[in-house]
Amino acid sequence: MVQRIKSASILVVDDDLGVRESLKMILMDKYYVSTASNIDEAIDSLKIIEPELIFLDIKISKENGLDFLKQIHSDKSNIPVVMITAFPSSQTAITAFRSGAFDYIIKPFEPSEIYTTVERALQHRIESYEKDKLVYNLRSAVHKNFFSTTESLLLAIDAKDSYTAGHSKRVSLLFGLIMKELGMNEAQIAKLRYGAFLHDIGKIGVRDDILTKTDDLTEEEFFLMKQHPEIGYNILEPINFLKEALPIVRYHHEWYNGKGYPHGLVGEAIPQEVAIFSVIDAYDALTTDRYYRKKYSNQEAFKIITEGIGTQFMPILAEKVLSIIKKCCEIWHLGGSN
Hints:
The chain has 338 residues and is an alpha/beta fold. It is 55% helix and 8% strand.
């Protein structure tokens, strides 16, 4: 006898033994069918295996199946759920669909009706999976193309100001390492690193002669230079997936005492991720050659930053960041000799 290959797993959640066994008998020849008599059993079952389809009674003893439906839809939104009811009404159907149900069946039910519903639900799951995969691939392509484009812009900035070449990549890498050391989760770090990588993109709108000037900037030139955070923000602001990273682009030159630019934010009004990044940005700037000066050693850079705590940099937080940078320097020998 040839054993038939079963194509999907189905979970039936109903406090009526007759309903559970009836659905199991109808479906077991073609599908793997597991059952639960209450919501706790269903939750335990979901911890073990994720079914391709769930049949769920609207009323399970004293429990509300619709509440569990919302939970399933929230936690595992790609599992179609077919509600079971013995007392149909238009309001019940509307509530079920609004809560995320794929369909509902009425007790007593016919085997042909069950087969049709199952096939539709499983086809819907396949189509949803393909749609989600397509959306993921499109987003990946958008991200890839976006960062290819923005990296080209950063290379253009590097071409305008060769002394800052590689600055954006270095500070982005160091920012990620420090945020991890400070306890931030990887997903959030990935989002914020976009801001670190793109923080100087607004310099594309600053004149070359200002970026490469070896003498002190005039008041007018400094005013123009101070526009680059806002220019960068305006370039990136329409891009939704960069929203969380934009404060780094816009505020990385703000000072703790309110004397920074472009908005003169004071103290705790500066977001913490920005306060952290500003230390990293300053460290990399101090330890690289610029048109107007040679690079400082690590020891000199640490001294300058320490002296700026409470004025330019946020107290306590800046000290923590500096201690991590020092540890990285010991490992990587960053920033030249001490």
